[in-house]
Amino acid sequence: MLKASFIPTAPQRELRELVRYRTHLIEERSREVNRVHKVLEDANLKLASVATDIMGVSGREMLAAIIAGQTDPTALAQLAKARLRTKIVELERALKGHVHDSHRLLLKLHLEHIDELNAKIIELEAEIAKLLPPFDQDDLLERLQTIPGVGEKVAQVMVAEVGTDMSRFQSAAHLASWAGLVPGKNESAGRNRSAKTNKANRYLKSALVEAAQAVGHTHDTHLAAQYHRLAARRGKKRAAVAVAHSILVIVYHVIRWGTVYTDLGANYFDERKADIVQHQLVKRLERLGFKVSLEPQSVAA
Questions:
Q1: pLDDT tens track for 205-260
Q2: CA torsion sign, 198 to 183 to 162 to 204?
Q3: What residues pair up with 289 in beta bridges, in sequence order?
Q4: DSSP letters of the chain?
Q5: Could you count the other beta carbons within 10 Å of the beta carbon of residue 26?
Q6: What are 126-150's pLDDT values in tens digits?
Q7: Inter-residue contact 23 to 71 (CB < 8 Å)
Q8: Which of 11, 112, 181, 202 has its CA 20 to 30 A from that of 87?
Q9: Greatest C-alpha distance within the chain
Q10: pLDDT averaged over the chain?
Q11: Where are the domains of the chain?
């Protein structure tokens, strides 16, 4: 159980409210961008298939031209900037569509809303920056960002939701339980079955899962190795939750003991069970018809 004294201080509550509202605005912005994608698809414009970010400089100029009434795909493609100019031919094909006045109106309204949300997010981030210094003792935010997958915003969410006093939690396991990153209880006839994680602090849990998914796009860290090992057996969603749990345990120790994260390395799991890995690989090769003979690699003097 959590200690009864786990009541956020007034400064933490103030920071938490701002960070949570920023999360809501970012989520709303993502939904609005998805609506822009839907309008483009309805108009048979495949801009997103060529431009990675339709909200980038090139994409916004093309969208502005479409709203203004431009329909010539060649003229629209010429608005591409920087590296996107290498895809002019693809852009011309992607921008051949059937744009109606209703599409232009929807695009205009969606983009205006996105700009309004961006302005609010910037305003919130300026205020958040003013409230953060008391929570950033000993460069805590910078140390948190040494954890794979943890960026500036995720680190801020962690501090806002958890605080900086880990004595409020009896252990890292209690913190993980509070964050809803432990399996739920599903027992029947004396047997335990796999169950979904508990519902708890959705803001912290979402930020940690987002960090874990970012780790899943890499391959050179201990957490990345954990993600890919679990994803192969149990799927990406469960792997992300498991890695999110690991990240939170690391966060607990970094905050409580004032340490800096030290990566165990991508080969940690293999090195820990070297004999088992060797045996499995040899068996796989033998099943493919190979005769395997292993010889230790010589170490240079």
A1: 999 999 999 999 999 999 999 999 999 999 999 999 999 999 999 999 999 999 99
A2: negative
A3: none
A4: ---TT----HHHHHHHHHHHHHHHHHHHHHHHHHHHHHHHHHTT--GGGT-S-TTSHHHHHHHHHHHTT---HHHHHTT--GGGGGGHHHHHHHT-----HHHHHHHHHHHHHHHHHHHHHHHHHHHHHHHSGGG-GGGHHHHHTTSTT--HHHHHHHHHHH-S-GGGSSSHHHHHHHTT-SBPP-EETTEE---PBPP--HHHHHHHHHHHHHHTT--SSHHHHHHHHHHHHH-HHHHHHHHHHHHHHHHHHHHHH--------TTHHHHHTHHHHHHHHHHHHHHTT------PPPPP-
A5: 15
A6: 999 999 999 998 999 999 999 999 9
A7: no
A8: 112
A9: 75
A10: 89
A11: 10-131, 136-257
- Looking at this protein, which amino acid is placed at residue 130? K
pLDDT band at 264 (very low <50, low <70, confident <90, very high): confident
Joined together, the tokens standing for residue 273 give 């069970």
The two structure tokens encoding residue 268:
């940690």
- Would you say the pTM of this structure is higher than 0.70? yes
Q: Does domain 10-131 have CATH number 1.10.287?
A: yes
Q: What is the pLDDT of residues 6-26, one digit of tens each?
A: 678 999 999 999 999 999 999
Among 131, 69, 130, which residue's Cα sits nearest to residue 100?
Answer: 69
| Amino acid identity, position 131 | L
Q: Are 110 and 39 in contact (CB under 8 A)?
A: yes
263 and 222 in contact (C-beta within 8 Å)? yes
Query: Nearest to residue 22, comparing CAs of 116, 122, 99?
Result: 122
Report the sign of the C-alpha dihedral through residues 79, 85, 89, 93, in that order: negative
- Alpha-carbon distances, residue 180 vs 119, 200, 241, 242 (angstroms): 32, 5, 10, 11
Mean pLDDT of 78-90: 95
